[in-house]
């Protein structure tokens, strides 16, 4: 889960099974339980005490200690563990050995300031209980070798345990026609749904600006690419927002409010009201990360069958899929490096990946892991591309999304700015942001 996006992921991770793993754990980072006696590590987690994820991870920690002899002192620190708690700790001697968070939070708060440790050694470690397999063998290159997951020296800084793709989710039980492939066909479908009057074409939690921004993200990805969006964001003058592709994207988003495609009241609702409305069949489409089906499971209407389609083609040459990776990182000042690396390697097994996918309804980075039915569409999206990218190709500027991008896109999405007004405002806001940064 990303603290910058405040992703409201609720479900649990399943724990690792013991048994054969306990007997067969061997990694490139060390031996078995006997030669690990007395060793320990400190782990600060993004999850809070009592959350399902915390309960499951605590069970896995217990099994890890039983299998290896390594004790884990864990603190369930919550969503700001990397953004706020870790920076303060780095000025003291009380530094954790392992933290977990999303890549789009680890980059600006650990990689940019140079406080992340390279994890090349973990990728060379054996996967416990899986003879002949190393960690680098079970995590596809499209995730592990993304340039945005690399330190300046080329080493990876994170080992993911789940990946979240972005899809246009709908109820396959009611929307039975083939999903439209291009933007023109998609708008035509929205028009038919509006004319039918039984359901709104779209909905969104209007104040969740990070999720509203997916529309802008993907339209620009399809025209100028993730690198293009990153270049615009890094323009100190803000003038790059005046590219014609940006205005074209803004005009399409402007249509949603202008044509009444969005469920009435979306712009004044609070999370998770609109997710509930979507799951109750009051709106046809909702763009969101692959955590959406699990979040609406408790209040979906009878017979609800969540499925997803990719963002429509818009005629541009750029193709690709945005992915948020959730995983483990280690501070450069970590003291118990070997124990920390063994702990991370322990959580890359197929058994853990399957349990995680089934219990938490998430996608694993492992290609061979179980795929929840509701996420089959997102899985196909990710499998269809040779490479994935994080938001804006790994933009790593603390504060830019919250101060420049999300609120301005939110005003456009909620109908408070025209397309031209969006371009003019974000250009000025970004110039001011960089001026305040001393650039």
Describe it for me?
The chain is an alpha/beta fold and 439 residues long. The protein folds into 2 domains: 20-163 and 325-379, 3-Layer(aba) Sandwich (D-Maltodextrin-Binding Protein, domain 2), CATH 3.40.190.10; 165-321 and 394-436, Periplasmic binding protein-like II (D-Maltodextrin-Binding Protein, domain 2). Helix content is 41%, strand content 13%. It has 18 helices and 9 strands. Strands 1, 2, 3, 4, 5, 6, 7, 8 and 9 form a 9-stranded mixed sheet that branches. Strand 1, helix 2 (52-68) and strand 2 (71-76) form a beta-alpha-beta unit. Helix 9 packs across helix 17 (400-413). The radius of gyration is 22 Å and the shape is globular. The model is unreliable at 1-31 (pLDDT under 50).
Ordered list of secondary-structure elements with their pairings:
Blueprint: H1 20-24, E1 40-45, H2 52-68, E2 71-76, H3 81-89, E3 98-102, H4 103-111, H5 120-123, H6 135-138, H7 141-144, E4 159-171, H8 183-196, E5 200-202, H9 209-223, H10 225-233, H11 244-258, H12 273-279, E6 283-289, H13 292-296, E7 306-309, E8 321-329, H14 337-346, H15 350-360, H16 376-383, E9 388-389, H17 400-413, H18 419-436
Helix pairs in contact: 9-10, 9-11, 9-17, 11-18, 17-18
In total, the number of domains comes to: 2
Low-confidence stretches: 1-31
Span between termini: 30 Å
Shape: globular
Strand content: 5-15%
CATH 2nd-level architecture of the largest domain: 3-Layer(aba) Sandwich
CATH top-level class of the largest domain:
Alpha Beta
Q: Helices and strands: which structural class?
A: alpha/beta
Overall pLDDT: 88
């Amino acid at each position: 889960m990303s603290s910058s996006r405040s992703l409201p992921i609720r479900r649990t991770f399943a724990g690792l099974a013991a048994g054969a793993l306990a007997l067969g754990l061997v990694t490139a980072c060390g031996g078995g339980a006997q030669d690990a006696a007395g060793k320990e590590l400190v782990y600060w987690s993004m999850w809070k005490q009592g959350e399902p994820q915390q309960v499951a991870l605590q069970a896995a920690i217990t099994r890890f200690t039983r299998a290896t002899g390594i004790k884990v002192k864990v603190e369930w620190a919550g969503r700001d563990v990397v953004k706020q708690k870790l920076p303060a700790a780095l000025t003291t001697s009380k530094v954790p050995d392992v933290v977990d968070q999303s890549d789009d939070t680890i980059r600006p708060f650990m990689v940019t300031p140079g406080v992340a440790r390279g994890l090349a050694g973990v990728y060379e470690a054996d996967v416990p209980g899986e003879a002949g397999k190393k960690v680098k063998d079970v995590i596809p290159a499209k995730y592990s070798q993304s340039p945005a997951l690399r330190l300046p020296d080329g080493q990876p800084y994170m080992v993911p345990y789940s990946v979240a793709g972005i899809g246009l989710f709908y109820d396959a039980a009611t929307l039975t026609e083939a999903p439209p492939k291009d933007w023109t066909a998609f708008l035509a479908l929205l028009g038919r749904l509006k004319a039918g009057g039984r359901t709104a074409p779209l909905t969104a939690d209007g104040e969740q600006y990070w999720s509203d921004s997916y529309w802008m993200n993907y339209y620009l990805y399809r025209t100028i690419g993730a690198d293009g969006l990153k270049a615009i964001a890094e323009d100190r003058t803000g003038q790059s927002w005046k590219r014609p592709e940006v205005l074209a994207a803004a005009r399409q988003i402007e249509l949603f409010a202008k044509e009444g495609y969005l469920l009435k009241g979306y712009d004044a609702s609070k999370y998770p009201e609109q997710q509930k409305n979507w799951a109750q069949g009051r709106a046809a489409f909702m763009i969101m990360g692959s955590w959406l089906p699990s979040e609406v499971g408790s209040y979906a209407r009878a017979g609800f069958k969540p499925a997803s389609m990719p963002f429509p083609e818009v005629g541009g040459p750029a193709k690709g899929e945005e992915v948020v990776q959730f995983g483990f990182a280690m501070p450069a000042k970590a003291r118990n490096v070997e124990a920390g690396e063994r702990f991370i390697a322990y959580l890359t097994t197929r058994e853990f990946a399957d349990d995680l996918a089934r219990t938490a309804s998430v996608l694993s980075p492992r290609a061979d892991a179980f795929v929840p039915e509701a996420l089959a569409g997102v899985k196909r999206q990710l499998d269809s591309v040779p490479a994935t990218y994080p938001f804006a190709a790994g933009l790593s500027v603390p504060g830019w999304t919250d101060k420049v991008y999300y609120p301005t896109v939110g005003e456009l999405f909620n109908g408070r700015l025209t397309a031209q007004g969006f371009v003019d405002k974000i250009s000025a806001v970004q110039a001011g942001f960089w001026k305040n940064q001393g650039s």
